[in-house]
Amino acid sequence: MSALLKLVILILFMVILPVFAGAAFTPVIKGGRDGERFGAGTVVTGYFLSFILCECIALPVLFLTPLGDFVLFSRIYAFLMIAAAVPGALAVFRHRKEVYKAAARMIKPGNLFEKRSTAVLNLAGAALFVLLLYMAYNRAFFDGDDAYYVTQSLLSVQTGTMYRYLPYTGITTSVDYRHALALFPMWTAALSRYSGMHPTIIAHSIEPLVFISLSALTFYRISGELFGDDREAMAKRASFMVILFVFWIFGNISIFTPETFLLTRTWQGKSILSNLLIPGSFLCLIKAGKHPDERAPYAEQFLLALSCGLFTSMAPAIILAFVLTGAAAVSLAVRDKTVFLKFLPAGAACLAYLILILAV
Question: Domain extents for the chain?
């Protein structure tokens, strides 16, 4: 398989299919101010859906088939991803003008360079972001966890099983429940099987491009909730992103900081948790506090909760998101004097966390 074809297949499964899946699903959960069919939230929602599909397919296959049939999992996952993306692709084609308007709202070309100071900040932010992606791709970092996580992906591709071989010794073993509940390495392995590209290359060179971009998009959405999305707010949002990128670049003050995980260990579930899922939870809380009558923040939080299980089984982090969502429900209930009604959507969003905590 040629390198170009491998890249096209990776773009299909890592970008095009998730975004189209989000385009098909977001109208179901949106309402009120977020009533647009397409927007920045569509992209993130699509990835959450792809992660949920991966988890919901991989877990039954892992426990109900002999040795965890990885080939069966990868086939079902590919079929369902395509099936989920087809309605979105049709919707995008039917609403081409609306898609263009949504993209214009996200980028706002007329506002990005309206003032010299805003233009300088936006150009600086774009340059820093490109530098981050370039360094993540060109300076791939390897550490000791490669011996387990990336090797687990490679073993699945080579043996057609899931979590049935010890990466350290290569001998067969029973399912390692401590790691098996978080099936992020199987997602990497599935991408490797589809494209024919080595799992190590996908983990260290391709996944950082996707997850750093998703994290940046999430923080950009947070800046919109904090500062607004009008022309006067563009300079503030640009400053916010420049400061964020500087923190990311110089945040390697220890091996445990979120910035270190984001840029050097992007392929680990802990990195996704600290740089995408937790910021995404804060975004949902901010939106729920500012717009209590909308269902979109709770629905997005629910999808985020379901996708958490793919990346890590660390219960304290999941409980943290559970408590934060509950705290938002309490504050809204006290403010609006409608305790029971406000707890219903927040409770539904928290239910997924409770299920994951009991499973772990």
Answer: 3-359
